[in-house]
Amino acid sequence: MIAGKEISLTIDGKPCKGALGQTILQVAGDNGIEIPTLCYLKNLSPWGGCRMCIVEVQGSPKVVPACSTPATDGSTVITNSERLQGLRRLTLELLFSERNHFCPICPMNKGDCDLQQQAYGFGIDSIRYPYLYPALLVDVSGKYFGLDHNRCILCTRCVRTCDEIEGVHTLDIGNRGVKNQIVVDLNVMFGASTTCTSCGACVAACPTGALFDKSAAFHGPLSRCQQVRTTCTECPVGCGLVVYTKDNRIVDVFGDAESTVSRGHLCRRGRYETWVEPRPRILRPMVRRDGHLVPTSWGDAVHTVKTLISASNHGQNAMLVSPRVTNETMRTLQKIGLRFDHIGMFVADKESALCTSPEFSTDAMKRLDDADGMILLGAQPSREQGVVAAKIRVAVRKRGVKLVILNSRRSDLDAYADISAPIVTLERKFWNRVGEVLGNVKRPVLIYGAAAMTAVGVTILDRLTKVLTSQCNGGEMLAPIQLPTSTNSLALAAGGVEPVEDISTWLGVQPVNFLYVVASDEPDGGARLLKEPHVRAFLEQIDCVVVQASYESALTDVARVVLPSAIWCEKNGSVTNFEGRALPLRAALAPSGEAREDNIVLETVFA
Question: Which site in 57, 163, 179, 207 is 20 to 30 Å from 410, CA atoms measured?
């Protein structure tokens, strides 16, 4: 058989074209024929357990699941008959009778539950079979989501998602027969799991209310919410988001299946931390009077800043910018740059060297899918870029990809690695071992982060190059993937903004009289600046510090003027991810209080 060869078949009397290797369900869908499903989910392996997609194939006395049955050339398929409708209705009735599906008190009621929608479609208003009424646990011990076994239909979509997309296999099916249920790790509560990454992919995959977001429960049916597609700004990957809103508040956040970057997957930071974690917002401009920050009008705040700038003409004026700002804000910085003696971007530890010569890794996510060997050098994807970590886990577990981790902090990825060396030795025995692991690799990918930009990292890179050149069947190392920590740092650096990681040295080179800090929507409000030695002392010596931020923090406590900034879901514009893709930001909410977008604030202040 030749993969991709065109085949012809007849479905419900309609001539259909498909490709060899496609299932009946896929061919039907491509030809506009709808077949009901429950356990099927695109991008997951077919299971065929729910039996809702059963069809009749001419010549076969038995019905077959369309999701897992290959389409064959010349076959005739019936998807809608009295027999099939009766069997599907029977399946639904048995599902309802087996567990405790009380729709009126379910968070997925009123249009969000696939099981409920199927029942409506088949006209089910009563069940002919006795209910079992099992006493099943409701697990709400997890931080962000809960598991109600009473509503579970054992479709295994969550199990397969956890295994095939996030790559941790936290979930599985336990027990036998009627006692079957989803289990976490080795049958523990979610709150006690040692493998769950809290990515929420299982919740997004669940067709009922069995897995539910705790912060979204009963806040309104998603079917009646507004949907806005935007981009996650928690890291440089740039995953697509679908934000559900109602009455100018977020109801829930899911991954965007149409995203060319993440294909609908998210990590904990993008899925939950952006809107579930409580963070005190700055809602009005504030000016310090008599030692206290007091709310004021935008006009008064801007006038105060301009007065302070004029008073500092005899000293150095400097600006520090968060790497989370948009490309539009970067262009505004380029316009007002002459007003400042220095403009710097505060980046993560050891990241300035990474940004000094910014390189975008074109099609990095696709190259991770194609690689047969991965080398992590000084990168922390489990902590900083969760979707990349998921790709690595899946590659090792499902495709047998070789994984070597060098000069990186310990993480869950160590358990999947062939070699994990947080401290790398230069002994020949060690490098011989590296050569053995990578000896048959033909498509290696090097993923390097900020910790690679050190003398040790350069030495390791040199050794790796020699190993790959001499021992990998003559293969050459693919173009490396540069994996920064900060969201838009590469684009800002390419736009001429100086990356700074040692703030105290940067401030101490020349005395600064006026400092303007654009902390934007940094989760900590920019307070991480004060964690560096001597920075607080330098700030206390500066005549005027202006902070433009979304959240209250220790940094705003030392400011003379505080200006409220919009957060991620209130922004329009774009950011550039580590692949060099310009990704759109679309406002899902109106700015809270009197907050404004960063570029608008800067244009107002420095007009």
Answer: 163
Strands (E), 138-261: 138-139, 145-148, 171-174, 181-184, 211-213, 226-231, 240-246, 249-255
> Which amino acid is residue 336, in one-letter code?
I
Looking at the structure, do residues 432 and 471 belong to the same domain, yes or no?
Answer: yes
Please write the tens of the pLDDT for every residue from 558-589.
999 999 999 999 999 999 999 999 999 999 99
Co-location of 74 and 10 in the same domain: yes
- Pairing between β-strand 498-500 and β-strand 145-148 as defined by DSSP bridges: unpaired
pLDDT tens across 281-335, in order?
A: 999 999 999 989 999 999 999 999 999 988 876 678 999 999 999 999 999 999 9
Residue position matching structure tokens 């027990």: 175
- Residue 86's SS3 state is helix
CB 241 within 8 A of CB 585: no
Burial of 125: CB neighbours in 10 Å, binned 0-12, 13-18, 19+: exposed
Q: Is residue 88 part of a domain?
A: no
Same domain membership, residue 429 and residue 506: no
Q: Are residues 135 and 256 in the same domain?
A: yes
Residue 47: CA atoms inside 13 Å, Cβ hemisphere, count?
Answer: 21
Q: Are residues 260 and 143 in the same domain?
A: yes
Full strand arrangement of the beta sheet holding 54-57? 14-19, 6-11, 76-78, 54-57, 63-65
pLDDT value of residue 532: 87
Of 49-53, 324-328, 337-341, which gets the smallest average pLDDT? 337-341
Instruction: Report the pLDDT value the prediction gives residue 478, as an integer from 0 to 100.
Output: 63
Per-residue model confidence as pLDDT tens digits over 483-536:
999 999 999 999 999 999 899 999 887 788 999 999 999 999 999 999 988 899
Given this model, what pLDDT does residue 2 score?
44
**CATH code at 470?**
3.40.228.10
The total number of structural domains that make up the chain: 4
The radius of gyration of the chain's CA atoms, rounded to the nearest angstrom, is 28
Is residue 477 in some structural domain?
yes
527 with 594, same domain?
Answer: yes
| Tens-place pLDDT, residues 60-72 | 999 999 999 999 9
Residue 106 in domain: no
Helix (H) or strand (E) holding 428: helix 428-437
User: Residue 59's domain spans which residues?
Assistant: 6-80
The answer to the question of residue 95 being in a domain is no
Burial status of residue 280 (CB atoms within 10 A of its CB: 0-12, 13-18, 19 or more): exposed
